[in-house]
Structure to design on (214 residues):
């Protein structure tokens, strides 16, 4: 498989204690993100201490920018700062190479 | 802070059941990676189901390649396929932009 150009948004965060509506909004945002033009996939892990990494993959920087400016997503981002996250950092990356085990195919 | 060029290695994996020496080797590899030329930082999260994401950051693609070819790391990679991981995928990325909350400084 020859990989097309693709971009990753790494969202690394530390949750505050308690839910405060986080679970429902998180599900909703994941569903909404998946409907955006240029969305490819998402993977997410959070451990019992509240440390989490979510990576979403996109076809272009424009798609990432559009999702960042989505109205409902902006409401969630604001709520994230107010209530859900002690801290987070975001890195926007261009995927240069990818491989997997077991091998998914020829690249 | 003006960000210098930097690269991320996203390692997303599913562990097999049981330790099989994984914990000790994982600690050793994290310690060894941190000593490599061009290493910047690492962040890692694994949940109770065994799903994990580890991201290491490096100054250059050469530094990533050197670490990949490190002898002890190659032993660990082989053992990873044999015993520790049901599956994994690796993505090598160029970090284009980064921001954080609370803001770490001016970028």
């Amino acid at each position: 498989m020859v990989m097309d150009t693709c971009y990753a948004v790494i969202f690394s965060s530390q949750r505050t204690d308690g839910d405060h509506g986080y679970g429902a909004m998180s599900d909703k945002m994941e569903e909404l993100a998946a409907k955006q033009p240029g969305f490819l996939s998402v993977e997410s892990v959070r451990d019992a201490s509240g440390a989490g990494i979510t990576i979403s993959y996109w076809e272009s920087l424009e798609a990432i920018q559009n999702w960042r400016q989505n109205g409902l997503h902006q409401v969630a981002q604001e709520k994230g700062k107010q209530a859900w996250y002690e801290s987070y950092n975001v890195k926007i990356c261009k995927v240069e190479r990818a491989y997997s085990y077991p091998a998914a195919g020829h690249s």
User: Anything to note?
Assistant: The longest strand of chain A covers residues 85-101. The radius of gyration of chain A is 15 Å. DSSP finds three helices and four strands in chain A.
